[in-house]
Amino acid sequence: MLLAVDVGNTNIVFGLFEEETLLHQFRVESARARTADEYAVQLRAMLAMHGIAPDAVHAAIVACVVPSLTEPMLHVVRQAFGREALVVGPGIRTGMAILIDNPREVGADRIAEAVAGFDKAKGGVIVVDFGTSTNFDVVTPKGEYLGGVLAPGLQISAEALFARAAKLPRVEIAKPPRVVGRNTVHAMQSGIVYGYASLVDGLVDRLLAEVGYPCAIIATGGLAPLIAPLSRTIGEVDEVLTLVGLRILHDRNRL
Predict the structure, then answer these.
(1) Cys bridge to 216: 93, 121, 126, 175, which one at CB 3.0-4.6 A?
(2) Is 201 a catalytic residue?
(3) Annotated catalytic residue: which of 6, 37, 101, 109?
(4) Residues of 152-177 as b/e, b for ≥16 C-beta within 10 angstroms?
(5) How far is 172 from 194, CA to CA, in rounded Å?
């Protein structure tokens, strides 16, 4: 089995693959103060719940956008499974030309999603990842990583509103019954949810107009199921796109 580890700013997602099949995924908080030993205990406990022995994991790949957690995750893999993990970063074979000014600036998760998105679309694709930030990553019909857009994430935007507007309450991020809010809670939910769906559609329209070729629009990330149905541009939601991209990258770098 292959262990794929996607370390984000908010959550760490562990995916367990058997060949091309994702058997299980586990999600924990990205707690910078937590030790590698604590993460190893958590991971082995989650595997044990599904009856998976540590020696069933024969390889691992890690994509990390939190520099302080890279080495702890590598230590977790060594301690829990006795393996050395492949790290997504400079020097890894992606099978994808990176056309931005400084390829080293591209986050490991964005590369994984672009690779998986192109593999799924078999052509031009824009991957919209609803994470701590919302990332729009553009891949050309030739399979080249062209660049993208980084926008403040939906949760970050909502937290800023809650923190800076003294008379506004903290509300659940959910679709309201209608766009025109008839109370403060529904008005805030409308602005947050429908406003963000409009942000996505507006940026996708501008990206498509600029590149000049058709693209599949694939959404991923925790809030994708909420926003995608309200968007006129998103064509598909794939919540495990990053993990699939890591599996593809591992296969391309396997000796």
Answers:
(1) 121
(2) no
(3) 109
(4) ebbbbbbeeeeeeeeeeeebebeebe
(5) 14
